[in-house]
Amino acid sequence: MEAVESQNKNKGMILPFEPHSITFNDVKYSVDMPQEMKDQGVVEDRLLLLKGVSGAFRPASCSHSSNGCEWCRKNYSYGRASRTENRRVYIEGDLKVSGYPKKQETFARISGYCEQKDIHSPHMFVDEVMGLVELNPLKDALFGLPGVNGLSTEQRKRLTIAVELVANPSIIFMDEPTSGLDARAAAVVMRTVRNTVDTGRTVVCTIHQPSIDIFEAFDELFLMKRGGQELYVGPIGRNSCELIEYFEVKGCSKCTL
């Protein structure tokens, strides 16, 4: 705990927090089959998005998930159906937080979720986490309207992270934090992600088709293929060495990233 508090002090964080890990085993996640797919002749009632995936996300580690993380964040009850966005979702499996079964009422207090779309009030200010997300030069700026005035797209991304950090979560999920950004802006946002990881928090990101620089900014990878089946769960390694070695051992020809 002392080490975490020291990290927080170095990074300018004010409130202490307790690090937490997430483990999940044989998780299945499905939704009602979209009507447009039924119109194309699909006869199944449900669309399976995750097919028995297992893994873990650890404190002070940045994990990249290839197939979304909202199933772990939203208010679902395992083994039961829940309705969201006019579509029923179904989740089965075992999910634990630091070894204890996940309870949504407590999980919501220790976790944050950065949506892909950055929706904020045009008059919002952020104070307590300015240093962490490197927004001090803009401390008196208005959020403004996208493409009209105020913050740039990259600055809005960092503000999205800051808004979640104000609640002082132990675990934070980020949905496509670099989407819509050029290479320079994406690098700035990823630096903010790394600063967040360095406070000792558990950070889980979904990033589709990342550049090699962004890919290797992560510590661990949760890679899935179509149908919600996991392909690789584990560390990436320096210059992706551990990931490459895994696939070469599995019989792939010489791998390069």
Written overview of the protein:
Residues 22-251 form the ABC transporter domain. GO terms for molecular function: ATP binding; ATP hydrolysis activity. With 257 residues, the chain is an alpha/beta fold. The protein has a domain at 58-83 and 110-250: Rossmann fold, CATH 3.40.50. It is 26% helix and 28% strand. The strands form two sheets. Strands 7-8-9-3-10-11 form a six-stranded mixed beta sheet. Helix 6 links the parallel strand 8 (171-175) and strand 9 (202-206). Helix 5 (153-166) runs parallel beside helix 6. The radius of gyration is 19 Å and the shape is globular.
* Count of individual helical segments: 8
Rounded to an integer, what's the Rg over CA atoms?
19 Å
Number of strands: 11
Low-confidence stretches: 1-10, 74-84
Structural class: alpha/beta
Major sheet: order of its strands?
A: 7-8-9-3-10-11
Main pleated sheet:
6 strands, mixed
Protein name: Pleiotropic drug resistance protein PDR/CDR
GO molecular function, one term: ATP binding
Domain ABC transporter: 22-251
Write the layout of secondary structure elements.
Blueprint: H1 2-10, E1 22-32, H2 35-39, E2 46-57, E3 61-65, E4 81-84, E5 87-97, E6 100-101, H3 104-110, E7 111-114, H4 130-133, H5 153-166, E8 171-175, H6 183-197, E9 202-206, H7 212-215, E10 220-225, E11 229-235, H8 241-249
Parallel strand pairs: 3-9, 3-10, 7-8, 8-9
Antiparallel strand pairs: 1-2, 1-5, 4-5, 5-6, 10-11
Helix pairs in contact: 5-6
